[in-house]
Design brief:
Elements (H helix, E strand, L loop, with lengths): L9 E5 L4 H12 L3 E6 L2 H9 L10 E4 L5 H12 L6 E4 L14 H29 L2 E6 L12 H21 L4 E8 L5 H14 L3 H10 L9 H12 L10 E4 L8
Parallel strand pairs: 1-2, 1-4, 2-3, 4-5, 5-6, 6-7
């Protein structure tokens, strides 16, 4: 049986001071990985690092950078890989603001493209040389179920998520021969600050209470509940593990069955 210990592996986890990013780092650390967290708020990073398991003797750390400014991400990762390998990269950052695509300004697309695809690419290309040398690499992108079916009211997000998925599939095809996999995790409605904002905007727009809006959303989910960040992190942890060595170039919905496609 393949052992799924990640002892000796170094993971870099984006957007990891809360929500899915933090839950993913906690899951990886519980499997023995040494985790470095990447976000813009140093105080929150310190608190998040303190929450990670050190049962395998890990010494976790963090990098400070803002995905809204790709140059800061590039500077941080360049300095980091000069001293550390990266075996597992979790690309994750907050999604673009909601709204109809016809209301979006061109700057909205450019900003989202930079925060998601460009920063993903900066981090991945910096990490790949060490992954190749180790013969082990996992690049896992937290994207959205809109990769399968566009979501109403999330025009910019739908557009950028599709670009990230195509980028990931292309990279998976190029890197598979080196023992590196590239996969996308597609969270459904997950109990995070982003979901709270989406519910608030939707209820205000439709003149309904938050509870009414939440109940309508839950009715669309066969599981009849919102995901927890830990639900998403469990799939991230599997994809990061040795057991997932033959899972490559996929986009996996983790949505309680909501997405209406096979």
């Amino acid at each position: 049986m393949i052992q799924n210990s990640l002892i000796g592996k170094i993971a870099l986890v984006g957007g990891s001071t809360q929500g899915i990013g933090l839950a993913s780092a906690q899951a990886l650390a519980s499997m023995g990985a040494t985790c470095f967290l990447l976000s813009r708020n140093e105080e929150k990073l310190k608190a998040a690092v303190a929450s990670l398991s050190t049962d395998a003797g890990q010494q976790h750390g963090y990098l400070v950078a803002d995905y809204a400014t790709p140059d800061t991400v590039s500077a941080a990762i360049t300095k980091f890989v000069a001293q550390h390998e990266v075996h597992i990269l979790i690309n994750n950052t907050g999604g673009p603001a909601g709204g109809p695509i016809t209301d979006a300004a061109t700057a909205d697309f450019l900003n989202a493209f930079n925060q998601h695809l460009i920063c993903n690419h900066i981090l991945a290309t910096a990490a790949i040389p060490a992954m190749k040398a180790a013969g082990y690499g996992r690049i896992i992108n937290i994207v959205s179920t809109s990769v399968k079916i566009p979501l109403s009211g999330l025009g910019v997000s739908n557009t950028i998520r599709g670009a990230v998925a195509s980028w990931a599939k292309t990279m998976a095809n190029e890197l598979g021969r080196y023992g590196i996999t590239v996969n996308n995790v597609l969270p459904g409605a997950t109990a995070t600050e982003r979901l709270s904002a989406i519910v608030g905007n939707k209820s205000a727009k439709e003149g309904k209470t938050r509870e009414e809006t939440e109940q309508e959303m839950l009715a669309e989910i066969p599981a009849r509940r919102f995901a927890t960040p830990a639900d998403i992190a469990a799939v991230v942890a599997f994809l990061a593990s040795p057991s997932a060595s033959y899972v490559n170039g996929t986009s996996i919905p983790v949505d309680g069955g909501r997405t209406g496609s096979l």
